[in-house]
Design goal:
Layout (H helix, E strand, L loop, with lengths): L6 E2 L14 H9 L1 H6 L4 E7 L2 E13 L6 H4 L7 E11 L8 H20 L3 E5 L3 H9 L3 E2 L6 E5 H10 L1
Parallel strand pairs: 4-5
Antiparallel strand pairs: 1-2, 2-3, 3-4, 5-7, 6-7
Helix pairs in contact: 4-6
Length: about 170
């Protein structure tokens, strides 16, 4: 086993056989990761083992309505809608679970979001959890549910930047 660092999905990466235990995430990975990336909808970042993708996440720009955002994100007279960065479709193949790949992907995603916000702006990072388990996972990373939908979670760029500086 030779795990890569986090890198952008390439045509050389194999997507077949990936199973994280969440059919919607497995389906997105197999059927949309490459096309969404090639069409500019998202960037897909992966960890691979000799070419086989064993963990991934998507990264894209997004927005959130001010009335859905927690107070910490709404302060300072933000525009409507509020510009954000989106971490989507994070998953690790179940055969590689428990090896820190998910944590490494989250940390990498947060670092890339900070870099992106420094370049293009953005008030928060948004995730859209697919179920209650995913909601709890993102809350363990300091994300706060949106005021109108507990499956949409946010964390301010400033908060992430401060957390990364301490870690």
């Amino acid at each position: 086993m030779t795990l890569s660092g986090v890198e952008r999905l390439s045509d050389l990466n194999r997507l077949d056989g990936f199973e994280c235990g969440k059919p919607a995430l497995d389906h997105w990975h197999a059927n949309f990761a490459r096309s969404n990336q090639s069409r500019g909808f998202t960037r897909v970042l992966v960890v691979q083992d000799e070419g086989q993708v064993v963990g991934y996440y998507g990264l894209a720009l997004s927005v959130i309505e001010p009335n859905a955002a927690p107070r910490a994100i709404r302060t300072g007279r933000p525009p409507d809608p509020i510009p954000c960065l989106l971490i989507g479709q994070l998953a690790v193949d179940r055969r590689y679970a428990g090896r820190g790949i998910g944590s490494a992907l989250v940390r990498d995603a947060l670092q890339r979001c900070i870099a992106g916000a420094d370049f293009v702006g953005g008030r928060a990072v948004v995730v859209r959890a697919i179920d209650a388990e995913a909601e709890a996972y993102w809350q363990s990373w300091g994300f706060i549910p949106a005021r109108d939908n507990p499956s949409v979670l946010l964390r301010s760029i400033d908060d992430i930047r401060a957390w990364l500086a301490q870690a």
